[in-house]
Design a protein that fits this description.
Layout (H helix, E strand, L loop, with lengths): L1 H19 L1 E2 L7 E8 L8 E11 L5 E11 L2 E8 L16 E7 L2 E9 L4 E12 L2 E13 L3 E8 L4 E8 L13 E6 L17 E3 L6 E3 L1
Antiparallel strand pairs: 1-5, 2-3, 3-4, 4-5, 6-7, 7-8, 8-9, 9-10, 10-11, 11-12, 13-14
Length: 220
């Protein structure tokens, strides 16, 4: 009886969910640039993630990018989530044609990786991992890397579930050692997060926490 009751409970939940979610129709003047599939809520069925260049112009004269997480219900795609704050716009940075974007679904998580150049020598690489839990998508991991062609390589990463953070700053020289180099800096520590950030409340680079026993901050 318990199994029958559980079966009908799940069935009713999916019926109500399908009625609440809106049908997905590709917006006019949107350009699809990426599509991936994978199971995000551990129900054994694949969701579809699509990324678009929208028709909304940004300060960089590019287009705002939006992605949709879509449920495959029957023969229809339904909008489960949509977001326009996580992915940088189409012409962001110094060399927009060299920007890179990758979206994967792995271990029931969405992993969004991006690269852009802040100037002719400096690249900015980030990877953000979001997991569906407690009825929403939350940020559970972040990796941020700053690289200069020859002066430095900085890499910060944090697991928001465990609180483990790693700071790795390595220095080199563009002038064959003529300039005195700062000392490399490496630190592992635990930072307690009282709450996790929801995907739709997250904007890249607008969050930080202090690195213990230093005047440095971890930005993500």
């Amino acid at each position: 009886m318990k199994r029958i009751f559980l079966f009908f409970t799940i069935l009713l939940f999916k019926i109500f969910q399908s009625q609440e979610l809106k049908d997905f129709i590709t917006p006019n003047d949107y350009e699809k640039i990426l599509e991936v599939k994978g199971d995000l809520d551990k129900d054994g069925k694949e969701e579809t993630v699509m990324v678009f260049n929208t028709d909304i112009k940004t300060k960089s004269e590019g287009f705002e990018r939006k992605f949709y997480i879509l449920k495959n219900i029957g023969r229809n795609l339904k909008i489960w989530k949509e977001n326009s704050s996580v992915i940088i716009d189409s012409k962001y940075g110094f060399y927009p044609t060299d920007n890179e974007l990758d979206v994967k679904i792995k271990n029931n998580c969405i992993i969004i990786s991006q690269l852009f150049f802040t100037n002719s020598r400096h690249s900015d690489t980030s990877k953000y991992t979001f997991r569906f839990q407690n009825g929403d998508f939350y940020l559970i991991g972040a990796v941020h890397q700053l690289d200069d062609t020859c002066d430095y390589n900085f890499k910060n990463e944090v697991n928001f579930s465990t609180g483990k953070a790693i700071i790795d700053e390595r220095y080199s020289s563009c002038d064959d050692g003529k300039t005195e180099l700062p000392k490399d800096y490496y630190k592992e520590f635990i930072h307690k997060f009282t709450t996790l950030i929801k995907m739709n409340g997250f904007r890249v680079g607008e969050n930080k926490f202090k690195i213990p026993n230093s005047n440095k901050y971890f930005y993500y």
